[in-house]
Amino acid sequence: MMKTLWQNNPCATMAKTISYRNANALKQPFTKGLLFLGTLLSVYMLTLQPVMAHGEKNLEPYVRMRTVQWYDVQWSKQKFNVNDEISVTGKFHVAEDWPISVPKPDAAFLNISTPGPVLIRTERYLNGKPYMNSVALQPGGDYDFKVVLKGRLPGRYHIHPFFNLKDAGQVMGPGAWLDIAGDASDFTNNVQTINGELVDMENFGLGNGIFWHSFWALLGTAWLLWWVRRPLFIERYRMLQAGLEDELVTPLDRNIGKAIVIGVPVLVFMFYTMTVNKYPKAIPLQASLDQILPLSAQVNAGVVDVETVRTEYRVPKRSMTVSLKIKNGSDKPIQIGEFATGGVRFLNQAVSVPDQNNAESVIAKEGLILDNPAPIQPGEQRTVLMTASDALWESEKLDGLINDADSRIGGLIFFFDSEGERTISSITSAVIPKFD
Predict the structure, then answer these.
(1) C-alpha 337: how far from its chain's center?
(2) What one-character-per-residue DSSP string does 115-149 give?
(3) Which residues of 390-410 are buried (b: 16+ CB within 10 A; e: fewer)?
(4) Which residues in 204-219 are b (16+ Cβ under 10 Å) and which e?
(5) Residue 30 vs residue 36, higher pLDDT
(6) pLDDT (tens digit per residue) in 249-269
(7) Is the pLDDT of residue 25 over 90?
(8) Residue 124: what pLDDT?
(9) Contact between 416 and 352 (Cβ < 8 Å)
(10) DSSP secondary structure letters along 349-405
(11) Which one of 74, 76, 166, 392 is separated from 128 by 20 to 30 angstroms, measured CA to CA?
């Protein structure tokens, strides 16, 4: 009766109305906020672009500048069909001023960075020698490389050569866009074994691999479910507290455990024996370290001596100014035509620099300026102020070196004489930041 009187009371009706209005008043700002956030998210989703990189800017600037210094990277062709072979060639200099915080390149692996298995690698050469494994690089050494690739999946892909340095990460070389045409179903990857048998590597051993993965997954799942099917946690904890831990494992559990402990090794040994008898001439996976000596000096060959006196980076202008003491030991006048560091090439417009590669290097075409552009004569020694200025310092995240504990720059300077012949020098220096 009291409930009925309260429901018929005008005060109660008014209280309900006020509560309803207050609830609606609270909901309106919340709803508007959700709509606003939804609108922002929709606009943001419309502006998203596909990722077009492989982490070139991920490593610290001093690692990219002072480890593997790439140049003359070329692709044999950039448009080809499935099953066609192409090659990427180039050179690199292993910097003498190897960062102290980066492990020495005692184990490095040359590979190609691709968005999935769109290509397969069929051959690989370092200094003209074929090799399969990781290789020990020597700081100060010069190398050339060649990697032969075969088209597998049609599409347009951004590809990079790179060195994977043990305990340091990937140092990317210049990339290129490759267009692969054709049909993926036409791809073939046949290899002749040491027994003379021709096998298709796309599906060879596929059924066997699926069987064993499924077998071990089912066995492990069954063993897990055998224990999970029982009451867990709280009930088992209570039994432990009550001193009944011996009852948690039944005789059947022990027998099944013994069967697995004995059966699994026996099963593995049995199938191992069958495999050895079926393939008696098998070669194990190789885990050695190749030893390939560097070429005769290509960089710092002694023709031109370069000493770095002082380096400053002006943050507002995004420019690196390097004071160089240069001695021309050649018999021809020379000029600085290019400065390359961290995957960026700064070009001097006053010097005719030949097109060195078809890889898509990051280039500042008017980024290099000299205080004295006159050629350095044979036998002359001159101090030159070289300024590499461009927004690429920021966009490529190279200016972050002023925030590193190892704030040093490294790179290659390319000199050209009147006949277009090139001399390369590697430089290194501590960097002094300037904020004015």
Answers:
(1) 30
(2) SSSSEEEEEEEETTEE--SEE---TT-EEEEEEEE
(3) bebbeebbbbebbeeeebbbb
(4) eeeeeeeeeeeeeeee
(5) 36
(6) 888 989 999 999 999 999 999
(7) no
(8) 95
(9) yes
(10) TTS------SSB-EEETT-EEES--SPBPTT-EEEEEEEEE-THHHHTT-GGGGGSS
(11) 166
Structure tokens at 70: 């790439």
Residues 350-387: pLDDT tens digits? 888 776 555 666 889 889 999 999 999 999 999 999 99
The strand pairing partners of 368, in sequence order, are 388
Residue 7 pLDDT grade (very low, low, confident, very high; cuts 50, 70, 90): very low
pLDDT at 308 over 90: yes
pTM: 0.78
Measure the N-to-C terminal CA separation of the chain; round to a whole number of Å.
84
How many CB atoms sit inside 10 A of residue 9's CB? 11
pLDDT of residue 196: 85
- Residue 45 has which token pair? 């989703």
Comparing C-alpha atoms, which of 178, 174, 198 is closest to residue 119?
Answer: 178
Q: What share of the chain is helix, strand, coil (3-state, %, to 5)?
A: 30, 35, 35
Give the whole-angstrom CA distance, residue 125 versus residue 146: 5
Which 3-state string (H, E, C) describes 61-113?
HHHHHCCEEEEEEEECCCEEECCCEEEEEEEEEECCCCCCCCCCCCCEEEEEE
Indicate whether 54 pLDDT > 60: no
Calpha distance 310→321 (Å, rounded): 8
Residue entry with tokens 């001093």? 62
Place of tokens 């290789």: 135
**C-alpha to C-alpha distance for 219 and 268, rounded to whole angstroms:** 13
Amino acid type, 248: L
Question: Per DSSP, what are the bridge partners of residue 191?
Answer: 199
Q: What mean pLDDT do residues 111-135 have? A: 93
- Select from 354, 343, 321 the least CA-distant residue to 69: 343
Report the share of the chain in percent with pLDDT over 90.
60
